[in-house]
Amino acid sequence: MIHDISVEELLQLQKDNNLLPIDVRSPSEYAAATIPGSINIPIFNDEERAEIGTLYKQVNVQAAKERGLEIVSAKLPAFIREFAAIPQQKAVFCWRGGMRSRTSATVLSLMGIKAYRLTGGIRAYRKWVVDQLASYELQAPAIVLNGHTGSGKTEILRQLQQEGYPVLDLEGMAGHRGSVFGHIGYAARNQKTFDALLLQELLQHQQAPYMLFEAESQRIGKVALPEFLLTKKEQGTHLWIDLPMEARIRHIIEDYKPEQHAEACMEAFLRIKERIHTPIAAEIQRHLESSQYEDAVGLLLQYYYDPRYEHTASHYDGDKRVTIQANSVMEAAGRVKEYLAAQQNR
């Protein structure tokens, strides 16, 4: 017997640590977008799915079903063993809650393994996420980390997140740092995955006294931020992280590891080269070609990134801007925690 559950029921059981969502779609579908926290036990791999899809379109539905049955029959023992090894309650889902999840749940039930099936599949979950974000109201005041490139804003947020502070790591969710160099060493995520991760974090921190996140632009890599978050950023208190140039250069080198990504660094630089005064651009390129990365980063900060940030800084003067001066990222993180503690004690 198949037990169908809604998106809301699945997420509540998952939140209570009583259920593991299992995506039975192909590995490439799972990689493109899934429910956060789920695992992938595919009933068909990518090649098998493509073969069945071709039969469905070019022959008929019956031929596709018969070939699907042949494939599934051969792999059933291993498929069932994987599910049997999972101690938690389980919920299977596919694209629309159709053949693949129904087959999985039915076979598991026959073998005495209970598995819920998500009604409507991942498509229903995606619709739920979109609807939730479209009407979401972030009640907590925003505390926004701002500052020049290389100030360690993301690292500070991740340290605070590990310590239990209410943080939205937008760059982590996007798989991108937000600049022309932002993809280096990262795997950029698509909008579906970003939206799911963002909503998960928002719901987790619904009762938080404030929300910490970085002052991002509307787009981060491949994804766009929802309008309510951009509005909250403009209304929030901005903690301006102020580090010495040497500390910023050091942090960028440690974060981007340009010696491991020399070609990607050069490609990114060439995309902005024309925006930099010609003699300076030529000097930066020479430094990149000779692996003198600290010199290249210093010139990029001085002649490209810092002037751009000065314009941004003018929007956050007065009581909406608080300067956090420090000599290192670690020290800056400590100062941010001091500020947060002082605000809570007021």
From TrEMBL:
Keywords: Selenium
Family annotation (NCBIfam families): PRK11784.1-2, PRK11784.1-4, tRNA_sel_U_synt
GO molecular function: tRNA 2-selenouridine synthase activity
Domain of life: Bacteria
PROSITE patterns reported for this sequence: RHODANESE_3
Source organism: Paenibacillus campinasensis
Entries under SMART domains matching the protein: RHOD
Domain Rhodanese: 15-131
GO biological process: tRNA wobble uridine modification
Statement: the UniProt record of this protein carries the keyword Transcription regulation: no
Name this polypeptide is given: tRNA 2-selenouridine(34) synthase MnmH
